[in-house]
Amino acid sequence: MFVDTTATPDDLPVPPSLDDVTSRFPGALFTLEPQPGAEELAVSTVGHGVGRPQAFSSAAITFGLWRRPDDRDDPVNLADISDELRAQLDEPPLFPLPDRLMTIRERMRYPMLWEAVQTTLLEDDPRTIATTLVEHVNHQLMNRFRETRVRGEMPGELLGAATGAAVERGIPVRIDGGVVDGVRLDTDAHVLGLGVDLGDRHLTAVLARDDLPFLDLAFVTRAVP
Predict the structure, then answer these.
(1) With 80 as the cut, is the pLDDT of residue 83 above it?
(2) Do residues 186 and 206 touch, judged by C-beta distance below 8 A?
(3) Which residue among 1, 38, 47, 183 is least enclosed by CB atoms within 10 Å?
(4) 171-203 pLDDT, tens per residue?
C-alpha cells in the first residue's frame, strides 16, 4: 500500500461550512433556537447520488456547550477529558496546523453537543418519525457513550439499544415560535430524544441528560445566508 508521507494538514480537504450546507440543503434545515449556552460549531451530512456536490439526505449540527456562558473562562465550562488529552492540548501541535484545525483542537477542551439536531429528508422513504428518532438515539449512544454502552471491538454491540416501543407520541415540541405534536424517547439513562414529522422531512434531537439543565429545547429553521 502506498502512503504519501509528504502530505500535511493543509492538504486535507476543507469540509463544507454550516452556511454552505444551509444554502444547498433542500428546504428547511433545523437548529437549536439561539441561546447563550449553545454555539453552532459544525455540520455532518449524508448524501446520495453520483458526482459532486451530492444531494443531501440528512444533516446533523454539532454545538458547543457553555455551562456558564456569561463567563467562558470559568472552569465549569471545561469538558471532562483525560489527563493525557489535556496534557497534549497544553503542548504546541507536533506540526503547524491551519487555523480551522487549531480552532477544532482548542475546542476539544470544552463539551460538545455532537450531531445533536438532525434534519432528515424523506423523499420516497416511508419511514416513521419513531424509526428516525430511534436511529439517531442509537447512533449517539454508539459514538458518545462507547465506554459504558458498547461491548466488543468496533463496531461493537450496543447494550440497551433504543426501540420504537419506547417512543411516546403527542409530545409538544417548539419550532419557529409555535408548538407542534412530536415524539419523545425518554427511557434511556444517558440521553433524551425528541422528534417531529414535518411531512417531507424529520427533525430529531438527541441530547445527553447531563447537558439538559443548560439548554432550552426549542428549534428554529436555520436562516439561509
Answers:
(1) yes
(2) no
(3) 1
(4) 999 999 999 999 999 999 999 999 999 999 999
Q: Enumerate residues 6+ apart whose C-beta is below 8 A from 67.
A: 37, 74, 76, 77, 111, 214
Residue 195 grid coordinates: 422528534
Distance CA 40, CA 223 (A): 13
Place of cell 446520495: 48
Q: Which residues have CB under 8 Å from 224's CB, separation 6+?
A: 22, 23
84-88, 103-107, 181-185: range with highest mean pLDDT: 181-185
Q: CA distances (Å), 6 to each of 14, 92, 188, in order?
A: 18, 21, 46
Top pLDDT among 151 and 214 is at: 214
Residue-level pLDDT at 2: 39
State the cell numbers at 144: 458518545
Are 100 and 14 in contact by the 8 Å Cβ rule? The answer is yes
What's the whole-number average pLDDT of the chain? 91
Q: How far apart are CA 41 and CA 64, in angstroms?
A: 6
- Rounded CA-CA distance 208/62 in Å is 13
**Of 205, 212, 160, whose CA–CA distance to 187 is shortest?**
160
Res 7 pLDDT > 60: no
Q: How far apart are CA 104 and CA 123, in angstroms?
A: 34
* Strands 218-221, 150-151: pairing kind: unpaired
Cα–Cα distance measured from residue 167 to residue 165, given in angstroms and rounded to the nearest whole number: 6
Domain layout of the chain by residue ranges: 9-221
Instruction: Give the three cell numbers for residue 76.
Output: 465549569
- What cell numbers appear for 66 in the block? 457553555
